Structure formats: C-alpha cells, structure tokens
Amino acid sequence: xxxxxxxxxxxxxxxxxxxxxxxxxxxxxxxxxxxxxxxxxxxxxxxxxxxxxxxxxxxxxxxxxxxxxxxxxxxxxxxxxxxxxxxxxxxxxxxxxxxxxxxxxxxxxxxxxxxxxxxxxxxxxxxxxxxxxxxxxxxxxxxxxxxxxxxxxxxxxxxxxxxxxxxxxxxxxxxxxxxxxxxxxxxxxxxxxxxxxxxxxxxxxxxxxxxxxxxxxxxxxxxxxxxxxxxxxxxxxxxxxxxxxxxxxxxxxxxxxxxxxxxxxxxxxxxxxxxxxxxxxxxxxxxxxxxxxxxxxxxxxxxxxxxxxxxxxxxxxxxxxxxxxxxxxxxxxxxxxxxxxxxxxxxxxxxxxxxxxxxxxxxxxxxxxxxxxxxxxxxxxxxxxxxxxxxxxxxxxxxxxxxxxxxxxxxxxxxxxxxxxxxxxxxxxxxxxxxxxxxxxxxxxxxxxxxxxxxxxxxxxxxxxxxxxxxxxxxxxxxx
Amino acid sequence: xxxxxxxxxxxxxxxxxxxxxxxxxxxxxxxxxxxxxxxxxxxxxxxxxxxxxxxxxxxxxxxxxxxxxxxxxxxxxxxxxxxxxxxxxxxxxxxxxxxxxxxxxxxxxxxxxxxxxxxxxxxxxxxxxxxxxxxxxxxxxxxxxxxxxxxxxxxxxxxxxxxxxxxxxxxxxxxxxxxxxxxxxxxxxxxxxxxxxxxxxxxxxxxxxxxxxxxxxxxxxxxxxxxxxxxxxxxxxxxxxxxxxxxxxxxxxxxxxxxxxxxxxxxxxxxxxxxxxxxxxxxxxxxxxxxxxxxxxxxxxxxxxxxxxxxxxxxxxxxxxxxxxxxxxxxxxxxxxxxxxxxxxxxxxxxxxxxxxxxxxxxxxxxxxxxxxxxxxxxxxxxxxxxxxxxxxxxxxxxxxxxxxxxxxxxxxxxxxxxxxxxxxxxxxxxxxxxxxxxxxxxxxxxxxxxxxxxxxxxxxxxxxxxxxxxxxxxxxxxxxxxxxxxxxxxxxxxxxxxxxxxxxxxxxx
Lengths: 480, 510
Prior knowledge:
The complex is a heterodimer of chains A (about 475) and B (about 500).
Chain A: H1 2-6, H2 9-29, E1 51-54, E2 60-65, E3 71-78, H3 92-102, H4 110-119, E4 123-128, E5 133-140, H5 144-156, H6 162-177, H7 183-195, H8 208-212, H9 216-226, E6 232-238, H10 242-253, E7 276-281, E8 286-294, E9 296-297, H11 303-313, H12 321-329, E10 336-340, E11 342-343, E12 348-356, H13 360-374, H14 381-393, H15 402-414, H16 421-430, H17 434-444, E13 451-456, H18 458-465, E14 471-474
Parallel strand pairs in A: 2-6, 7-13, 7-14, 9-11
Antiparallel strand pairs in A: 1-2, 3-5, 3-6, 4-5, 8-12, 8-13, 10-12
Chain B: H1 2-20, E1 31-35, E2 41-46, E3 52-59, H2 73-80, H3 93-114, H4 122-139, H5 147-154, E4 158-164, E5 169-176, H6 180-192, H7 199-215, H8 218-230, H9 244-249, H10 252-262, E6 268-274, H11 278-289, E7 312-318, E8 323-330, H12 338-349, H13 355-363, E9 367-375, E10 382-390, H14 396-412, H15 417-434, H16 438-452, H17 457-467, H18 470-480, E11 486-493, H19 496-509
Parallel strand pairs in B: 2-6, 7-11
Antiparallel strand pairs in B: 1-2, 3-5, 3-6, 4-5, 8-10, 8-11, 9-10
Helix pairs in contact in B: 2-10, 3-4, 6-11, 12-17, 12-18, 13-14, 14-18, 15-17
C-alpha cells in the first residue's frame, strides 16, 4: 500500500488495479467462511430426448443412443397386471410373468435359452406386478440381434412348460409361508388389506389356496389376452444405431398382428377411509408402525403442491418435519417418514417408523400431531425454499444415464403423462405457493381417517395403543 | 482425400473393434491419480453426459478396527459425521462447547452406574438418563438443525448418505457439476473442525437401527451369531452395528479418540467421477483438503485367526421358517486363489445354469434359492459362504447335504471349456456394467483403493479370472471346502408356545 501511495497517480491507479485484480483472484481461490457465500456458475443442460417410433403393429419404441460402452439395455412395459387377475386365482399375473421367462418357447427349450443367454452374459427378465408387466433386457451390443430374436420368441410363443410352472408355484408358496417372518412385510400387507377394503384387488396377495388353483391353461389365457404389440411400450438405450434397430424390430415383430385390447373393470375405491387401530402380535422389542389413508388419483393438478408438501412433511430424511423431530431431536427411530402418493385409481397417504416398544405411543402421537399441523401451521420461507431447491436442482439426476432417461420415458408414456411433463416440471414446482401447499394438506390429509397398524409385542403395546381407539387384534396365519 | 478416407476407415475399425470386444475398455486411460502432500489420495474420472458428478470419500476404518467395549463405534461415528462442524449446524460453537462437556460428564456417570450391573441403582439410572436428555435439549438452543444435510439438499444433492462396513467407512453424494466447491467445503470442514453434537440422541437412533436389523430379523440375528462362531480371535467376528450393550455405553469422548486415530488424510481415498474439469478438481482438492495436517497412519491389526480344528455349528431358535448358512475360512482377497474362489462362486450360484440352481432349486426342488457370498471382511482372511432358503417340508439338514454333494462335483467334475468361458464373459460384462453410472464407478474406485490398496485390481483381476483352470478349481475345492474348516448356522423354527415355555424356565432359574 505504501509503495502505491508513493507513486504517481497513473501508476498508482495501475498498481491499484493490479492489486484489485489480485484480490479478486484471491476471492476465488480462498475459502469463504461459510459455504453459503459460495457462488456457482449457472448450469447448462440439454436433456437428451429419446426418439419415439411407432412400429407398424402399434408397438411404441423409444430409443437413445450412447456409444461410450459396448452395451445395450432395454425396458418393456406391457399393459397388464395383478389387478386384472381373478380373486380366486391371486398369483396368476405373478406366475405368468415368471414362467414367461423360465418356461421355454414352443421351439426352444427353457434350458437352451438359459444356456445361450448366460453364455453371452446377457439377460432377459420378465415380471408382472400389480399395475404393469415388465421385461428388462441387457446385452453386449454385438449380441443385440440374437437377443432380440430370443425376446421375440419369448413374448409371442411362450410354452409355459408344466414343470417350470410347478417350480414357480412351489417358490411362490414358500415365499407366502415366509411372509410372517418379517415384520416389515406384515405391516405393509395388513395396512394394504385395510386400506383397500373397498376394492380388494389393490391390496390382494396370493394365498396358498389361490396359487394351488392356477393351471398352465390359466397362464396361456392370461398371456393371450394381454400380450399384443399394440399393448407394449419399449425403450432402448446404449450402443446401437437407431435406424438399424428399428429395421430389426420391424423385421422381427412385424408379423405379430395387433390384438383387441379388453381389460376387465376394477371396482373404484371408496372416497373415505374407515379409521381403525390394529395390532399384530409378534414377540419382539420394537414396534413396526404404519398409518395412513387413501391418497390422490394420478394426474391430479395438485400433484406439484403435494410434491412440495411431501418434501416438507416427511420425504427428506433429516430435512423434513418428521425426520427432524422423531429421529434427530428425539432419537426415537432410525427410519421415519411420510408420503402422499398418487396412483391410477387412488394413491395413499402413509406414515411409518419403527421404535422400541416403550416409545410407541410417544412416536405415534408426535407424528400425528406433526401431520395435523401440516394443514394448520404456516409454512416458513425457509421450508419452501429448501423444498423447491431440492426438487429443482436434483431433477437432473433423473437423467444421469441413458438407461434412466429411457426407462423414465417409458414409465411416463405407460401411465399417460402429458408429453411436456418433464419440460414443464421445474416451472410448475417453482410456481407452487405456500397457500397451495396448505390447501393441499387440508384437502388431502385426513387425521380423522387414519388406519393404524402396529406389529409388536401384545403385552407391551395392547394397553397403550387403546389411547388411539379400540384395538383390533389381527391374528397371523400359521403355516406348517 | 484419399489419406483422409483411410484415416476415417482406420478410426472406424478402431471404434468397431472396441465395440466388439467387451474387455477393451481400459480404465487406466480414464483414471487420473492425484495425491496431496498429507497423503490423501484422489482418483478422478471425467466423463461427458449430464452436468453432474458423484463423490465418494472412503476411509480405511470399519468394524475390524474395534475392540469389545467400543464395537459399533465406526458406524456410530459415521452417523455423527453428519452433525456438523464449528461452522455448520451451530450458531456459536464456543458457547455450545461447555454444554457438550457437561453432557459428557453426566453420560459417563450413567455408563459407570449401568456397569454395576445387578447393583446399579435403577432410580439413579433413570435420573441420569433424563438429565442427558434434558441437557441435550438445552444445548439445542445453539443447534442449527442438520445444516449439513440442509446445505446439500438445497444444492440438488442426490443419494447423500454414508455407509460403514467391516473394512471401510464411505461418505458419498452426487451433485450438479457446478457444486464441486460446495462439496469440498463441507467435506474438508467436517474433517478439520468436526463437532459431535447431539451424540446421545443419535446413539438412541443407532439402538433403533440395531433393533431393526438384528433383534427383529431372524436372518440378521443368525448372521451375527454365525460370524461370531466362525471367528474366535480376529475382530472380524463382531457385527458392524456392534453389540447393543456397547452401543448403549459408548461415549462422545471415545468417539473423538476413535476419530483422531483413524480419520487421518493418508487413510482416505476420494473418487470424483462425472462432468468435471480435472485440473479444477486438483486445484480444489489441494486448496481445501491440503489444509489437513499430515498425521501417522493408524496401527495395524496384529491378531490372526487361529486355524479351525473342527466343524462348528450355531443354532438360533426363532418363530420363523428354517434358514441355512455355511462358511469356510479362506485367505484374504489379495491371495492368488481369490480368482479361483470368484470362479467357483459363479459356477455354483450365478444364474439358472449354475450348479446349485440346476440341482437343488430346479431338479430336486429343495430350496427357493442357494447363493454364494464372501464375508465379512476384504482386508483380512474371510469366509466363502453359502446360504439357502429351504422349501417346505425339506429340513435344513437335507438342503445342507445337497449343497455338499454339489460342491463335491467341483472336485469330481471341475468346470471346463464352455462353463469357464461363461463365467469369464459374465465377470467382464459385470465390469462394463459397473462403469455405467458415475456413482457406481466412484464407489468402486474408492473401495478398491482404500480397502485393497489399488484401484487397478478392478480390471487386472479380470485377467486373473481368465487364467483360472479346471485344475485350480479342483485344488481349491479340495483344500478349503472341508468339514473341519466349516461353520454351519441354522434358524430352527419354534412355535410361540415353545417360546413361552422356555422363557418361563429361564425366569425360574434366575
């Protein structure tokens, strides 16, 4: 500084400028006292968009090339699901999904397919869940044509061999026998049964008797009804040439004719949930707790307000109200949370935690109070800002890999999201106001309609739980 | 023109052969190593794509570094690392400090009282417990709740978490690329100026985690007993979560001592993978993490597991269906036989063409699944394990026998030709698939470097797999899979009434 002052004005200025420049550089290269003082260059991101093609037979195909690694992966969704199976044959969809892959085709033995796929380090795996059928394919790009031929055969000409069905049935039955070994499975299952009492298909699970009734003919009929090219949406990501791939798909699947689509109706769910307090006895030192009620339909315009509300209430581990109080302040649980979801018919509101028996009522009471206040207490600027920033800035992670991008695209198409869903997502999140969140909480959270399920020790819990209402004890089935 | 054309063709051929040959991806060409003067090692990979990166800091400290009395501390410390620093999570740490000291004193008194066992005064215990709670609540007036998480979340973090195993503790997060300085700020600050506030309520959280993973889960409980039976001397024998009584007694000061010993820069590996400029990464690494003073590496573990001289069995009675787990002692992963064990693992249990699946699952229908694994450590000699879920009404002993019969075929009919080639193809494809996500690659680079001492093993191990012969498999199976060298664990079902009876008897004895 002294040298600067001793110099002439012009020089001084230059020196000053030089010093300022140095200071500015230091500002970048020193460490600020608090990370909130850090400033970041804006990010530019053009989300790669998969190409959409419709094959002549109606199959929708999304493709996204990426040549970094010699790999291809594909994700198929078939419009079917356990929702559509008859109640007395619960498990039919699940078994169809399994044996589609394991049961061979009319021209290829199952063992032959296994051998070839595994030698090529490729995989084709199929499954049918409650609301969707799915096939996932992985292979080295050099083998893509051969794998697609196998896949084509499997989707169109499955044999559902008797011995493989028998194997799948035994396996499914064994997993039913074992459900009650895991308190997590019990609490989820019993909650679903009660929640979906008005339309049981949504909460139904296979039982030994229903699985016992299922025959190969049932699988053939279930497959024949839903497996049509115009009932399939596919996505490919990885190392291929889109034009060549589409030509291959047209050649392979081209002679698979469109089919008539005919879905049995599912009874709608009731508008209101009947509240109840339920205890499942299990001799253990910790209570597994879950409570909630029905949620919102898919494509509800309040989806964005609900998404922000979820973040504030229970979907941010530590940075949400429930996590902060139950876990961080009180040390009552390792896992705690709540979420309001949408679904094809009705989603659900669900809150959960696991805590030592003696703190069960404390945990439930505090959680219920926090949920009640979601609709009454003002939301702070801080909560709004954090939640929106979190949703906005982590959005890019939905598109980290080509596989993710394509799988997400297939999901959105399958569940009928508007084409601009992803393009408008951030703007719509940004537009959510505090009032909208409060309104959503008032409208969709119903503290008076809670179904409460607790798995834990009767001796420790029965009496304390009466605080929340008449306790209904659910007996567990026993198996040999 | 002509020359240009040739170049294009050559490039095309090069690209083509790369695409055709799955093993051609050389990780060596992608990973840049950078080590600070204090010994902290950085592994950097730039890849194009979404403007994001994944960071993983792995410390070579885990459950094996614990002794009885502090089991579970490596994991509890990992929880505490999220509680903040002198700057994060607090309004005024100087004013907070006396409170933390006071809490320590009361908590240590509580530990001493509990240690009296039968002679402990229940009234005093209750008082002290309440006192710890009250004091922590008082100290909360200085706490900015979970500010570290909050900062990350506000900046778009994805997959923010940490994990602790027997060998290492890993802190990971993915962020938008422009947030690299934020990551460096937070991570270096929690190494430079950590404050383990809210220790005792977090200790309660870990107790709930113990109940969740072990006390309410038959397989969790059996696994705990199984490992403790297979290992008598080596600290590999304790569960990473620790013994409940240790968790309930460990103090904040013990956690600080543990940290000072193991959280030294030379004991850490950092992997950064994503859309990053590597020169900037180096500068930021030096600027932020270069501030950490150089410190000596933690002491080595000298205890070695003595040779096993006979089969060991452990039974857990539970109101649950039967389950089976078997393990044979084997050398550490740096031993030349490791590749042979990997081949055996795949031959026995990988996919529907594996020997276990074909014989036990598909043909004999004795189990829903039989799988292989390696536990519990990769820093020291470990176990080759097999677990099976029997199908009703087959007892575990029948499944166990079938497992031995299949394993005998490794000697009588060792894998050759196509069966070996299949394994090689799959392990190479696994390697490639593991490169697909930033997070997966970062995690593996850091793990291999920190635990096995060299990230290159990820790739060089594949060449060792290629060299495994039928004779190797026969020799290894003969040498290790002996009854003398094995430990067997079973869940034996009991009915609720049996359980009550047993409890009654125990009470009467007391």
